[in-house]
Amino acid sequence: MCVLSVVSNPRWLIWLTAVIIVCLSIPSAHGQDTSFGGWRQAGDDLELKRVIVDPGALFSPEFLFVRTSLRRYRLGVVRAQAYGSNKDSVKTLCKKSKARLGINANFFDEHGKALGLVVSRGNMYQKVHNSGKTLTGIFQLTPVGISIVHRQDFKPDAALEAVQAGPRLVIDGEAVHGLKNTLSHSRRAGVCID
Q1: Torsion angle of alpha carbons 62, 66, 67, 71, nearest 10°?
Q2: Cα–chain-centroid distance for residue 178?
Q3: Fewer CB atoms inside 10 Å of the end CB: C or N, the chain?
């Protein structure tokens, strides 16, 4: 298992898939209005915003947004194998790596092995998955900066940190058309760069 994490370790800061904004959709408890309007400080250069779509509903989607300018943080891929395990929870990997934030980075097979690209500290642990319509995006850190690219545009020699996920929902500020619209209610996570 691997996750992306934001670490505030002053020596070498690991990175998170949730660069500027991480979105999690979680069912809300009935009658519990935990939404807050604006951004709230969660740390130096780290802000949170929670939005509940319908606070009075039994199962209302809830979005948690996290943003940072990355002035005090670096992004990195944290692999469970680096800590002697084949798989761990995001919470456990954040504790082990001293990350401030973490997010699942990939889809996983029935054995907990990541599906799609995994690059950590310049080392490729898993190659790009080139088939299907889901794993179309690669979130990467290169010497030039952070970007989200289509898997066909990925340059392996340039990546310092990278994970493959998807599907991409927005490209160059425009919504991607033709995605399958499912009405299933489950937790989702995403990342975008402003």
Answers
A1: 180
A2: 23
A3: C
Q: What is the SS3 assignment for 137?
A: strand
The residue type of 75 is L
Contact (Cβ atoms closer than 8 angstroms) between residue 112 and residue 24? no
Query: CA 99, CA 85: separation in Å to the nearest integer?
Result: 17
Exposed e or buried b for every residue in 91-125, given b needs 16+ CB within 10 A? Answer: ebbbebbebbbbbbbbeeeeeeebbbbbbbeeeee
The pTM is what? 0.76
- Residues 18-60: pLDDT tens digits? 322 333 223 333 334 444 568 899 888 888 888 888 888 877 7
pLDDT, tens digit, 9 for 90 and up, residues 173-190: 888 888 776 656 667 778
Interatomic CA distance for residues 9 and 11, integer angstroms: 6
Which are the contacts of 159, defined by CB distance < 8 A and separation ≥ 6? 119, 122, 124, 140, 141, 142
